[in-house]
């Protein structure tokens, strides 16, 4: 009975995989026909004339088979931007990877259970949904970890970003020129911030408002220090004025915040060490200090008895 169930599940998963492959092939074929028709309309020979870098691959095409809710799609897109991936191709590839990983992990588990055999096959009805859920959630967990790591990196780079802007402005550059210089010439020093500023400067060149674009970028990344810096720059763009003194005060404020956080971490570490000392060190210390006294009292009472 268990073997029949296993083979039925394998057949179902293979059927689903074949169906997805056929649907992808049909979608690609229809896309090629539409591209060829558009090229004939525009009188542009050649199949590759309209292809652009980053055109959807097969993973991106797979994501179109499972549309997400707008709320979930917006949350995933925000995480991708925080992780440094902002193209629509990146979102489609990530969604396609999640869809592909579920049947792939389930098939791998079925093959493993079939090789092991015995009572392991009886656990397949419990393990298969668990592995399928893990296949769906693991890419999301990995994306969140990468987004948090990149946020921490940007948080560490913000003081250096403010220092570079202050030095460039004191050297005689305007704020726009300073931002462009940081975005293009300092990628080895602050790579994450330079990447984000490059995107902002391209949007500004296309006509976007400087302060609003900077603040929108900072809010998307969800780094408080960067939001404060971009809010200050937005005020400078809106009302004008000297930016060197606010940048100097902002850098001092960032270092004060970092010192306070380090002091809090040291205080928490001291509290944790107190618990460790009480649990592990104090009994050993009590045995060393009070042990001879207890032994002497025990011998005295034994001698009296």
UniProtKB/TrEMBL annotation:
Subcellular location: Cell membrane
GO cellular component, one term: plasma membrane
Transmembrane domains' residue ranges: 6-28, 95-117, 123-143, 269-298
Pfam name, any one: T2SSF
InterPro entries: T2SS_GspF_dom
Organism domain of life: Bacteria
Record's bilayer topology term: Multi-pass membrane protein
Domain named Type II secretion system protein GspF: residues: 162-289
Keywords of this entry: Cell membrane, Membrane, Transmembrane, Transmembrane helix
Coiled-coil ranges from the UniProt annotation: none
Protein name: Type II secretion system F domain protein
